[in-house]
Amino acid sequence: MKPRQTEIEEAKKNAALEAVKHVKDGFVVGLGSGSTAAYAIEEIGNRIRNERLHFLGVPTSYQAFMLAIKHRITITTLDEHPTLDLVIDGADQIDQDLNLIKGMGGALTREKIVASASKRLIIIADENKKVKVLGENNHPIPMEVIPFSARLIIRKIGEMGGIPAIREGNGKVGPVITDNGNMIIDARFGLVTNPTELECRLKSVVGVVETGLFVRMANTVYIGKHSGVEKLEKKM
Ligand code: 5RP
Question: pTM surpassing 0.85?
């Protein structure tokens, strides 16, 4: 039997390969962040090389930027291309209405900006990311915050009934600093039965740059399995 981790990696890759089939010659594509999106970036590079196609990529993080360079994808910016054809990105949780929690990789703000600039957002993930209700298994909502306001936001999230924590670094002491020079607060709210309302409340806290709640943004989700892929489409 294959080790469980190998099966999960195969599932992520299967979802990524399916999503990259939507990329057409001449497309400007948003390049998501995380381990699943990394498979999509690699496959976009393969298609450029093998099929002699021309794509431009807008990376959502330094990770995506460095992978795009490695796989010889020509980089562009939102300044040059404010409308993207497609974004392919990962997610941490996906509910039945295709609402998402993102940001465990800390790239949520650029990911949301790029998604908001795109005609279509395709999410790729393995089966473990599917939930009935966001926040299951005590999963936190990541928020990018201005460091100056971090303590104040911690207090306010507590008053709202959340359990907040500043994200600590791996391979570095102290807080994680995002690609935008900010901090991440992970806030647990239990089950998020109304993500639209929570998103509004969190965004109204001064100093919160962006939240990892992506409400009704995803158009298509590919859930990879170790053999095959399940396709979910947003209900109108
Ligand atoms: C980064 C993200 C990632 O897309 C999300 O964390 C999923 O990552 P992975 O594919 O490694 O599980 O939102 O900010």
Answer: yes
